Every structure is written in C-alpha cells, then in structure tokens.
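User: I'll paste a sequence; please echo it back and then give the predicted structure.

Assistant: Echoing your sequence first, then the prediction.
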Amino acid sequence: MRNRVLVGAASAFLGMVLMSGAAHALSVNPAGANWQSNNLLATPNTITGISGLTLAYRSILGVESGPFASSYGTTFNGNGLQFSLSYGSGSSIACPTCVLVVTRGVNPSGSPLTAKYLYNIGSWNGTEQITGAAFWPPANQLPRVASVAIYRADPVGLPEPASLLLLGAGLVGLGIWRRNAAKV
C-alpha cells in the first residue's frame, strides 16, 4: 500500500513538472536593453561577448531572411516606433542562448543603420510573440526601427530537465517493481 502511495505521488509530481512549461511572451523597449551599440562594424558577437552567434531570423522592414524566415513574420506599425514578431508555423528557434537585435532606420541604400539595442532572450520559448515599443521617437523623423533580428548560439546536445526527470521516475518505478517481484 505504501509503495502505491509513493508511486502515485511521484507520478503526480512528474505530471505537474512536465505540464508546467510556462510560455514566455516578451515585450521589449529601449530601457530594458542588455547592450547598446552605434559601432558600424559591430556584430552581436563583439557587442555581447557571446561567441558562436549566427543569424537565425531577420526582418528588414517586413522582408524576412535567415534559416527560420518561413516560420516567423514581423510587422512594423505606421510610425515605426513599434514592432511585433510572431511565430507562424514550421520549425521554431531554440533559444538557450539567443540575442534579439533591434536596429534603427535605413540608409538610402536600404541597409539598416548602425544604432542597435540588443536583448538576451534566452528565456524565450521560440513560439511566443515578441513586441517592441518606444524606439527612437519622435515618430515623424527618420530613422526609426527598420530591422529586427534573432541571433542564436547553436544549441548544445544536453537533455532537458523534464526528460531526465522522466527517466529517473521510470528507473524508480522499475526498482519498486523489481523489489515487489522479489518479495513474492
């Protein structure tokens, strides 16, 4: 009887842990930036000190590029102070180490200007919307938000905690089953 109660409690705990994967919707603004740069030659690697960052997604005034371009879309509001990056479908970006880069304005050639706000978005789950507001006012003057990009470090092949917990619960269950089988 005691073993059944323990197995039931362990199963309930495991179910709560596996179902508690909370979603992370992000809202960013200039005051919350982790890093800033006005350096023409700066890349996220040199600004953040995080090595191995590669482009996962970029939207320059609504034109998407990068390996995940077909999975996401970004809209910029009419005055250019706000943006909304949304997941559509397909592969999502895994973000144990990700940096969101919001870039100011465009040059006459169409390339983004160099002022950047950078955010550590490692807690983002890859499917929740990211919104940004209050960038480079006043709205009637250019430059404004022209580019939103996500850079990520390639994920390391470590198992997630829920998988390890599931494996551990399975091993405990096997041990209890074997102990009960040995008593009979």
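The CA atoms of residues 12 and 177 lie 18 Å apart. The chain has one domain: 23-157.
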